[in-house]
Amino acid sequence: MTNEHPYPPAFRSGDLVSVSGRLGVTEPGDLVPGGFDAECPQAFANLDAALRSVGASRADVVKVVVYLIDIVDRDGLNRVYEEFFAEPRPARTCVGVASLPYGGAVEVEALARVRDV
Questions:
Q1: C-alpha distances in angstroms, 49 versus 2, 43, 55, 57, 99?
Q2: What residue numbers bound the domain in which 102 lies?
Q3: How many domains does the chain have?
Q4: For residues 90-112, b (16+ Cβ closer than 10 Å) or e, as one string?
Q5: pTM for the complete prediction?
Q6: DSSP alpha helix (H) spans, the chain
Q7: Within the chain, what is the greatest distance between any pair of CA atoms?
């Protein structure tokens, strides 16, 4: 957490993990150049890092919500989603929005359930 962002990237309560919205930004917080095509894979990489920070993985994800400023990018999202998640993929909602923080093109949030091995 920082003063600018008074919430964690991910929060775990027992076996439930909630991942805050992840943008296509680098560690310093700058949007990756290249618009949606560059931001989308980075947003999913940031989702992966947030999951790992609380002992979860992408295999634990049960629901994803994606916000797009241009719903036309849904096909590109589908390609990244298929590469990121193995079958069976988690449920997903895709929402078109007017704007995102920092002028981002895509934001991804997730809900996961960590299964004991």
A1: 17, 10, 10, 9, 24
A2: 10-113
A3: 1
A4: bebebeeeeebeeebbbbbbbbb
A5: 0.93
A6: 36-53, 74-84
A7: 42
